[in-house]
Amino acid sequence: MEKVNIVFHDNGTVTYQHKKILNFVPELSKDGDLRVLVPNIPLLTLSTQSKSLPRFLTMGLSMFLSGMDMKPFVPVTAQELVFGYDDPLVSIAHRFFPKTRRPMSQMGLLLGRNGTLEEVSTIYTGHTDMREFGLINRLNGMDKLPYWSDAPCNSIRASEGSFFPPRDQTGEDIINVYDKDLCRVLPLKYRGPTEKTGIKADLYTPADTVFDPPSEETPDNECFCPDDPDSCPPKGLQNISPCQYSAPVYLSFPHFYKADPKLLDAVSGLKPVPKLHETYFKIQPKLGVPVEGKVRVQLNLKVEHQPDISAVANFTDIVFPIMWLEEGVDELTPSIRRWVYLATTFADIAVPLITYGLILVGIACLVLASYKAYSNVVLTHEAIELGKRTIRRGSSFIVNGQHRLLMTKDSYVLLQTDDHDDEEKRNALQAFMGVEPAFSY
């Protein structure tokens, strides 16, 4: 995955597009040509939606489907199931349905998601407020999701998964992440501190009530059932039909993890394991950067018994698991991990050490300077005697009243003044110095 067509704006936002490239990994896969038997999603979708039709139309539809030899299960490869295979019902719908409800030309669960550039995202850079760092500002130019009519279901105030507002700045225990496959914003709850390869992080997992039907504890979930709150799916399911061309597709965690036990009992072979099936994020609290994370969801098809359609008459009411997906990051690249480590864990240790080290060095310098100054103190009497010896040996000017004495190393001169005592002073100087004056007057 990479971000392309990046444009920065003056209001503290940046616009880009996600380019997802999905590559087949043979060593982690079964035989690519192996065919698996999966539910005929277009047929089951049509049969479920036909329950609202008059009986005579339903009978006509049943004859039409029988004439096309439609079966409730179809053999396809995993590649075809994910990226598309030809289906007659999908081809008809693509040709005749109105543009707002027109599906792709093929049937594929992730058709159009590989290498395409459809969605334009605008997020906050955090330049003006780090509490909005990484939050979505616009999706395709819109400030809310078009799939749901009421708030908070249509809110886009969430991260797209690459950056989050740092918890050290916000102090919030709930963060939100948006993914197109989820058809909604997914709230994640802070569960406690953790770490990843020596980097401190916070652990987040989905709230326990995220896929619960509306109740006094979960009133915000009511807007996901716009027609009738009583028609909401059981615990653990999320209706995403508005994102799937009105097909009765429901989202859950893999293997119906944390879902109503009745959903699990209706299907054989499912065994939910938190370590394998739980969505989680490990986010560095200072930078808001995920150091590890996995979004794990399961796509399910809700099938309703329709005895008037002979092709699916034997199907009972069931929520049929189709596939589950895992998207995320296990490890940061070495270069990114190095910078994250230096900016967080290393800095938390190095900055106090350097600060206190400099303080200790400063104290040591002051003590040393004070000791040297005290050791070089000369008593006043000794300083006077030292000054006298310096005058005798050095070369300097001494000014004493109106008499200016010029002394050099070998000669001394008393300049003439108007004072009548000059003769006495010259004689005294001669006696003191023991030499003849350089000049006499």
UniProtKB/TrEMBL annotation:
* Domain of life, per lineage: Eukaryota
Note one Pfam family from the annotation: CD36
GO cellular component, alphabetical, reads: cytoplasm; plasma membrane
Which molecular function GO terms apply here? scavenger receptor activity
Which residue spans traverse the membrane?
339-369
Q: Does the keyword Cell cycle apply?
A: no
Q: Does the keyword Membrane apply?
A: yes
Q: Where in the cell is it found?
A: Cell membrane
Keywords in UniProt for this one?
Answer: Cell membrane, Glycoprotein, Membrane, Transmembrane, Transmembrane helix
Family according to the record: Belongs to the CD36 family.
Write the protein's name: Scavenger receptor class B member 1
Query: Whose protein is this, by species?
Result: Trichomalopsis sarcophagae
Q: What is the lineage of its organism?
A: Eukaryota, Metazoa, Ecdysozoa, Arthropoda, Hexapoda
